[in-house]
Amino acid sequence: RAIGDFDRKRAPGAKQFMTGILMDVTEQKNDEFRKNDFIAMVSHELKTPLTSMKAFVQLAQSRLTGGRDVTAALAIEKAVHQVVKMSNMINGFLNLSRLESGKIQLNIEPFNLAKLIENVEKDTRATIVSHTLLFAPVEQAVIHADEDKINHVIHNLISNAVKYSPQGSSIMVACSKDETEVCISVSDSGIGIDQHELLKVFERYYRVEGSKLATVSGFGIGLYICKEIISRHGGRIWAESEPGKGSKFSFAIPMSST
Ligand code: ADP
């Protein structure tokens, strides 16, 4: 009988027994620490060569773009794209290990939310050409939070919306606020997520399985990092979705995080 499975129909005064399984999780925890340490070490080692590789391919790109060798220009453009993708993955692992070792501190300062969204709009319009980005008007508001980290969360949600929705579809970024908190949401019309996985996607290393997802690269750490950042601000993050129709990821943080 499983723990917690009580027999409510037992006769009054009868003895009750409860059984359960005790499991030593020390080894499991050690394995996890070793795995995380290993990932952190590998990511750290890969970062340096990757950073110089990125600089070299970008230099080559600046020389080849607009030149006569169209094939070489195209090849180098693809190389830059892949190197940037790889460094984003490595940065994800480094952020994860910094976060878990308590090395990431929030830097809370007042900033203008409308200005932040304006910058996100500028950045994403310059880099995302595969989708139509729509930004709802944002009210002026000064909030007290870690601007860089909130910026990271919004970029992550937008980048997921791009990854998990068809080319050419629209992605909508919207903000709302009341006296106590601001809420930011990113909606897409992509593959969506089943109801029973809406909470799991915020777990570390969790990825939804499925044939449509097999070709999309990732390690399932982006949303976990977003959740950690938002909860450290005293906020909350959640997802709503209809499979096949799209998803909406939202987070709310207090106007003034401490
Ligand atoms: P990654 O995208 O690198 O796998 P994330 O932590 O960002 O890691 O996301 C975890 C999982 O949640 C993804 O693998 C995917 O299955 C699902 N997911 C995240 N964002 C979306 C989205 N906008 N639409 C559909 N599924 C999503």
Mind explaining what this structure looks like?
This protein is an alpha+beta fold and 258 residues long. The chain has 5 helices and 7 strands. The protein has helices at residues 26-64, 70-100, 113-127, 147-163, 222-232; strands spanning 109-112, 132-135, 142-145, 170-177, 181-188, 236-242, 246-254. The strands form 2 sheets. Strands 2-4-5-7-6 form a 5-stranded mixed β-sheet. The protein has a two-stranded antiparallel sheet with strand order 1-3. Strand 6 and strand 7 form a beta hairpin. Helix 1 runs antiparallel to helix 2. The longest helix has 39 residues, at 26-64. The structure holds adenosine-5'-diphosphate (ADP).
Task: Summarize the topology.
Elements lengths: L25 H39 L5 H31 L8 E4 H15 L4 E4 L6 E4 L1 H17 L6 E8 L3 E8 L33 H11 L3 E7 L3 E9 L4
Parallel strand pairs: 2-4
Antiparallel strand pairs: 1-3, 4-5, 5-7, 6-7
The chain binds adenosine-5'-diphosphate (ADP).
Protein name: histidine kinase
GO molecular function, one term: phosphoprotein phosphatase activity
Keywords: Coiled coil, Kinase, Membrane, Phosphoprotein, Transferase, Two-component regulatory system
Topology pattern, helix = H, strand = E: HHEHEEHEEHEE
- Counting DSSP E segments of at least 2 residues, the number of strands comes to 7
Ligands present = adenosine-5'-diphosphate
| 3D shape | globular
Instruction: Provide the β-strand percentage band.
Output: 15-25%
- Biggest sheet strand order reads 2-4-5-7-6
User: What's the main sheet like?
Assistant: 5 strands, mixed
Q: Helical amount among residues, as a percent range? A: 40-55%
Tally the helices: what do you get? 5
- Rg, rounded, reads 23 Å
Distance between the termini: 46 Å
| Structural class based on helices, strands and sheet pairing | alpha+beta
Mean pLDDT: 88
Uncertain segments are 1-8
Keywords: Coiled coil, Kinase, Membrane, Phosphoprotein, Transferase, Two-component regulatory system
GO molecular function, one term: phosphorelay sensor kinase activity
Protein name: histidine kinase
GO cellular component, one term: plasma membrane
